[in-house]
Amino acid sequence: xxxxxxxxxxxxxxxYEGPEPGTYVQYFKDDATAFNAEKFDVxxxxxxxxxxxxxxxxxxLTGIGIPNHFIRRxxxxxxLIRACxxxxxxxxxxxxxxxxxxxxxxxxxxxxxxxxIIEFYYKDDKLGDPMxxxxxxxxxxxxxxxxxxxxxxxxxxxNDFLSGLFLGVGIKLVDFKVETGRIWDGDFxxxxxxxxxxxxxxxxxxxxxxxKLDKDVFRRDLGSLTDAxxxxxxxxxxxxxxxxxxxxxxxxVH
Length: 254
Ligand SMILES: Nc1ncnc2c1ncn2[C@@H]1O[C@H](COP(=O)(O)OP(=O)(O)OP(=O)(O)O)[C@@H](O)[C@H]1O
Ligand SMILES: [Mg+2]
Fold this sequence. Notes:
The chain is of the alpha+beta class. The protein has a domain at 86-206: 2-Layer Sandwich (D-amino Acid Aminotransferase, Chain A, domain 1). It is 27% helix and 32% strand.
């Protein structure tokens, strides 16, 4: 029996119509996929952790004035968000070479980049989310040049903030992906952050040991994904030292 209307079911999340017009409920599943869904598993507890971590990060971003879709968390797996018109781009910001950048350009994983590098990928699963340039984005009308400029400045602000947030708890932000969307305030269009920011969408390495605390643990079979995500949550002060649900503050890593 459907409680509410399903809007979209993706690989990691489900969107339902929200209680008020212009809102959705974002439900975080335990499903994990990689390599354009060729690799698939169900990882007990992943959705709960990502819901909580994304809440924490989006709330912090709101605190420094970075507009985003998060309204409030509803329960362990769901959050209320502002519905927006998703711009069909995955926006990747890189600080350190890893993943596809290392592969394509032959740069060793772990090499610090001379400056943050932003890449755009066209969101289309059938095409495997191909990389595109600003020329493609404007020519095919996915976004205007002004939108791209706004997206870049938003992405760089998020990068600076998140780099500091994670460094403070002994984690290096190697790269991350965000999605953006449009909302309208009367006649004015604004671009806001949407989707999620979690260890599914970031590369996070322990500063001291280089241990991976992100989805690469799943992609490369490096151990328990929930252990890695729990560690991120614990360091951010979302989980107490020993287990779940407490209110311990962030722990300084020396
Ligand atoms: N605020 C929002 N308003 C509208 N759509 C949103 C919002 N936030 C996220 N979405 C969309 O909801 C979907 C979330 O589902 P999920 O991340 O599981 O999709 P996916 O399988 O990864 O596919 P996709 O390639 O579309 O991201 C995505 O398509 C995302 O673009
Ligand atoms: Mg997605």
